[in-house]
Amino acid sequence: MKASLLNSDTQLNQASYYEASVQREPAGAPLAGAVQADAVVVGAGYAGLSAAIELAQRGMNVVVLEAERVGAGASGRNGGQVIVGYASGQHPFVEQLGRADARRAWDMSMESIRLLDGHIEQHHIECDRVHGYLHLADSPRKARALVADMQELRDDYGFDSQLYTGVEVRQHLESPRYCAAAFESVSGHLHPLKLALGLAAAARKLGVKIYEHSPVTALQRGAKLVASTQRGSVTASFGVLAGNCTLGEFGPQVAPELTPRIMPVGTYMIASAALDAALCERLIPSNAAACDNNFVLDYFRFSADHRMLFGGEVSYSTATPTNLKEVMRRRMVQVFPALADVAVDFVWGGFVDISMDRAPDFGRLGRNLYYLQGFSGHGVATTVLGGRLVAEAVSGQAERFDVFARLQHRNFPGGAMLRMPSLVLGTLYHRLKDLL
Ligand SMILES: Cc1cc2nc3c(=O)[nH]c(=O)nc-3n(C[C@H](O)[C@H](O)[C@H](O)COP(=O)(O)OP(=O)(O)OC[C@H]3O[C@@H](n4cnc5c(N)ncnc54)[C@H](O)[C@@H]3O)c2cc1C
After folding, report:
1. E strand or H helix at 289
2. How high is the pLDDT of residue 199?
3. Whether the predicted pLDDT of 50 surpasses 80
4. What is the pLDDT averaged over residues 148-174?
5. Which atom of ligand 1 is nearest to the CA of 386?
6. pLDDT tens string 100-153
7. Structure confidence at residue 76 (pLDDT)
8. Are 436 and 141 in contact (CB under 8 A)?
9. Could you please report the per-residue DSSP string of 390-402?
């Protein structure tokens, strides 16, 4: 039987290392009664929270409605890798918008890292922030692709990384698997749930009201928007939809036109037992985050308490892969044979909202309802940018938001029933290519 997205998603959040390593405040009461606001935000992940902060900083009265808890979605469970650039690379921007706007999109991606660090500093968010990133290749063909990507970013955008090949790679990552690595220090990593909770605290300090356990089940559009939950409603002049893959699960009628443009793809993580600090330093001396350039990628890094946090695997149905903990452990040991005897303490996962071409999908539904989706697994920094751009657009400066809104996004082929099988076929092809 096909598992529902919501059931799988909830189950995948039962045993996350991140939840086990924070203290949450008890949830407040869900929304009840009729509330008025300047702006209503649906979803308390990074996208919704950063939009709320930015709108509140511009003097707006903002209400955030969250179906579960702050950071309960992808924002509280991800790899914590803060990555410059977009999952799509620059190609959709160059091809659809031309070189000048592609350049602006790149510059905004660089800005997204500064914005994120600005939030962390300004709001005193303790989230174990580390700079340093290794992009890895595990075959000569992938190494050529890595070098080509580096070259393009250097030539077209002035973005430099340091290339290591052959035996040099082992000085930066003690793994037999990789033959090339590109290091840069703009990207890096952090504790994702601490970031989400920190953003929520910052939003509250700015006067934003956040109602948890308040799924939006209906949204009336017009000059005034009315977002309804089971026991209450928010009437507002502006709205931001930041509900990621589960938006349509909680409220199928909230924005049905957005659902076919993204595909929920399951991705999974494990956290090892805490390791010796000396071993961590030997395996990744720079303590950088790392990710390979395969189509189905492995991504990993150490936590502040010296656990290996290893992500990978994918599922294109909503079902969780069987024997997940062992499958993930084996992947980790392939990369780091030195961890063969290390226990795995946590296993969890979530869904990534991929768009057809993996470029972010920002836009408007009517004049006053904005949406942010399609982060395609590159959302930690880009969501924060999205929040700023929405706030600029709401305040009448839409030029930068519109760089993204002008990108055309196609629906996944096959409609609701067939979009997953079509994606599986397409992906099988790329998985086979990864093995060559
Ligand atoms: C396992 C995993 C690993 C990842 N690793 C990385 C990584 O290392 N680096 C990176 O850059 N990106 C990574 N990502 C992607 C990144 O986490 C996301 O792009 C980002 O967190 C998306 O933020 P968001 O605010 O759009 O969505 P979310 O964080 O998912 O927030 C959406 C929120 O909206 C709520 N919601 C949905 N519908 C409704 C409704 N109708 N009413 C009210 N509330 C609603 C949900 O409950 C949820 O809390 C990863 C994702 C996963 C799942």
Report:
1. strand 289-292
2. 98
3. yes
4. 96
5. 26
6. 999 999 999 999 999 999 999 999 999 999 999 999 999 999 999 999 999 999
7. 97
8. yes
9. HHHHHTT--HHHH
pLDDT digits (tens, 9 = 90+) for 230-281: 999 999 999 999 999 999 999 999 999 999 999 999 999 999 999 999 999 9
Query: What is the average pLDDT value for the chain, to the nearest integer?
Result: 94
Six-digit token pair at 309?
């946090």
| Measured distance CA(201)–CA(207) in Å, rounded | 10
CA 316 to chain centre: 17
Q: How far is the CA of 278 from the centre of ligand 1 (A)?
A: 33
What confidence tens digit (pLDDT) does each residue in 373-421 have? 999 999 999 999 999 999 999 999 999 999 999 999 999 876 655 555 5
Q: Write out residues with Cβ below 6 Å of ligand 1.
A: 42-48, 65-68, 72-75, 77-81, 83, 215-216, 242-244, 246-247, 250-251, 254, 267, 269, 299, 311, 349-352, 375, 377-380, 383
Dmax (CA) of the chain? 65
Q: Can you read off the two tokens belonging to residue 104?
A: 């602006």
Q: Report CA-CA distances (Å) from 149 to 178, 288, 408.
A: 17, 19, 24
Instruction: Quote the distance between the C-alpha of residue 401 and its chain's center.
Output: 19
Pocket test for ligand 1, best of 54, 69, 78 (most atoms within 8 A of CB): 78
Ligand 1 atom nearest residue 69's Cα:
49
State in Å: Cα 170 to ligand 1 middle. Answer: 34
